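Memo to structure team: turn this sequence into structure tokens by end of day. - J.P.
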Amino acid sequence: MITQSLEVAEMLGQGLAAEREALKALTTLLSEVGDDVPLRVFVEQLCLDTQEHIESFEKLLAQKRLVIATKEVRLKQVA
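Reply from structure team:
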């Protein structure tokens, strides 16, 4: 599902949810890799990267105030 938001905190929450979902899928994949060592190492690295992304989103969401440069979005029509 694709969701949209104009609120930064909501966007970060959506990103966090997507990263958690990805980590869950990668963990499931990791249990199915078997004896393929190069693939196992690759998937483990993806898990680590995804966990770092989760931690980054959590840190951003923990901040009390998010500075938003502008709340208004103006779209230009391209000819």
